[in-house]
Amino acid sequence: MDFAEFYQATSPRTLRYAYGLTGDLAQAQDVVQEAYIRAWQRWRRLSGYDDAEAWLRLVVSRLVFDWWRHLRVRRNAPVESPAPVPPPSEDTMLVVAALKKLPERQRQALALHYLLDVSVASIAAELRVSEGTVKSWLSRGRDNLATVLTAEMSQARMGSAADVAELGRRRRRTRVAATVTAAGLVVIAVIVLTTAVLGRNRTMPPPPTINPTGSPMVFSPLRRVGSMPLDGLAYPEVAVQNGRAYVIDTAAPGVRVLAMNLADGSQAWPRVDLPPAGPADSVLVGRILITPQVVMVLTGTSTQGVTTTTASAIDPATGQKRWSRTSSAEPDDVQVFPGVAVFADRAAGTIVGVDLQTGDTRWQVATPAHRVFGMTVPGDLARSDLDTGTPTMGNSEDQLYVSDGKETITEYAASTGNPTGRAWHGIPPNDGFLAYNGDIYIRSARELYRLHVDDGKLSREYAGGGVTAMSPCGLADICLIDVAESGGHNVVAVHDGQVKWTVSVPRATRLAPVGLALRVAGNAANDGAVVLATDGREVLRTREDSRVLRLDAGNLLVCEWTNERSVRLSGVPAGAPQLESLGGLDTAQGQLAAEGTALVAVVGGELVLYSMVG
């Protein structure tokens, strides 16, 4: 292998590694360029190594961490008199700006734990909070940094091997020694992202993964890969999760569940048949919760005004039913958290935590529960679609919030049912809650409030004519629909009490995240729908009855139904807001899902797997 081949094969991985160590894209590119120049100068000897790439990574590590060691020496050296301090570099300002997107407590916890090597227990004692709270700050902080840096990484580009070789020749002629410069605050991102890159885990499992987008997807007309029969399912609903498609039918007597492997279209396990929850004419609602830990099927029946919910837990790996349980909680009042299902029974005034593996009751709390909800984090927005179809996802965080319907919200640990010691009173009259990225947003008729859970501060974020909907829109922003007295509809992005942007979208009534972007739609078919980027730019305009699915960090799939069973499909490459036709299918709403390059749809009595790339 010559140097050009070596460079082409290894430079993308090396850049990702350097980016993980520096947390700054421009700095990572400088470090990688320096490392390859040194490799080119030693190529005659280096080409004979068993693992030349390992040598390259070692050079990258030394370039980054030598600078940090020198910085620490300078910081600790005694200074007799202060010297003039130059202004911060542009790179430093960019890094600081990125880190400032994190809440203060997250930044503080990351700095103490990763920069100063302070234990979780010591941080908890110093900041006078529980260890669980500190772990939550660390988890959310890692998640937020990974989201920001992954988005930047998708724009990364390196020069050619010829460019590197020319720099090496110039270096050899002029004997100019290059130095590596970086910003001190980058070290927080250094350690945080090195944890993810190298697989180290100090106190918490890694945050939800957001798949990087190396380049825009090269779409092509649908290509059939495989299929499996649906065994007479009447009204199947389709969802995807972690490389597998699930098909659920709650219309038949009982409930039927199938699974397909997205790798080859094969059936993952035999069909699961669950018994009816009650008489055939008493079925009230069916709901599915799919997480990597469980496929939870919920069916509700109503007899003389009394609701009974039957919950059945299925192992997603084997298809084996783990357990079934009946409850007087409404199907919509059942939530899935890591390791536990939470049943909020409003009539009985109890909340019950059930072990996902065994079905045993872990805990029970007697408390009025008007509303039970969990905390959404930016990593959750990596999920394909949060707004359409019966199958939905669970909560990735352990925090459980209970509103008493009056003026108090109380926080519990979902895994144990224990109160965390945090409760907030004086909550204003409201029309709903949204917990996102460490804050609870409270929507009233005309205003949006934010409850900062770390310090209990309640602030009014926005006041307008009529706040009718809200949704996450980006790493740390909340978007809302404000209906003016004149009848105009505006989509407004708010951050820390400041309006970042406002976009007029006539007749807008609904918001839903598509990754970090935002889909805005009306109620009528002729209203249409738009997808807005994190800066408010219109990325796409589609039919109102369409679906926009997130395939990975940047590529999208637009599904536009021309009638009840005919859909037109278009791919949208990352960074290029144009529709590329993939063809059409005869399938209904809720009977189509996609992930990565794979699309599954109910067609002709089968579940068919398609590839969207050539």
UniProtKB/TrEMBL annotation:
Regions that span the bilayer: 176-198
Domain of life: Bacteria
InterPro entries for this protein: PQQ_rpt_dom (IPR002372), Quinoprotein_ADH-like_sf (IPR011047), RNA_pol_sigma-70-like (IPR039425), RNA_pol_sigma-70_dom (IPR014284), RNA_pol_sigma70_ECF_CS (IPR000838), RNA_pol_sigma70_r2 (IPR007627), RNA_pol_sigma70_r4_t2 (IPR013249), RNA_pol_sigma_r2 (IPR013325)
Residue ranges constituting the RNA polymerase sigma-70 region domain according to the UniProt record: 7-71
Residue ranges of domain RNA polymerase sigma factor 70 region 4 type in the record: 94-144
Signal peptide: none
Keywords: DNA-binding, Membrane, Sigma factor, Transcription, Transcription regulation, Transmembrane, Transmembrane helix
Domain called Pyrrolo-quinoline quinone repeat: residue spans: 238-331, 341-459
Entry-linked CDD domains: Sigma70_r4
PANTHER family tied to this protein: ECF RNA POLYMERASE SIGMA FACTOR SIGM (PTHR43133:SF50), RNA POLYMERASE ECF-TYPE SIGMA FACTO (PTHR43133)
UniProt record similarity statement: Belongs to the sigma-70 factor family. ECF subfamily.
Protein name: RNA polymerase sigma factor
Organism of origin: Hamadaea flava
